């Protein structure tokens, strides 16, 4: 696992504004990905807003998600959605593209992908 020498990922990438740019780029991809469209709402506004709160907290920023929604309980919250290995990979593909688009540099990009790959693997709940 990559170690961050700048404190938190949140600080290393530039704080809230950088996380917001990443989230926006990420959801632009999610909205167009054929493997993800079936499990996301047509209007991604609220989903993206909640994801932003999560990313801010997950990357070591303020605990915005927890303040609004309580403990993440990610697996439980995602159980209603069929998350297959293909969808997990599609989600990570969208994330990686967004990281590149907003110019998150190495080694931070690798650290983010490593952490969120673990999370994405945990979210899978349906075989192909």
From TrEMBL:
Cofactor: heme
Pfam families per record: Bac_globin (PF01152)
Protein keywords: Heme, Iron, Metal-binding, Transport
Origin superkingdom: Bacteria
Transmembrane segments: none
InterPro entries, per the entry: GlbO/GLB3-like, Globin-like_sf, Globin/Proto, Globin_bac-like_CS, Hemoglobin_trunc
GO MF: heme binding; metal ion binding; oxygen binding; oxygen carrier activity
Keyword hit for Transport: yes
Family: Belongs to the truncated hemoglobin family. Group II subfamily.
UniProt-recorded name of the protein: Globin
UniProt organism field: Oceanobacillus zhaokaii
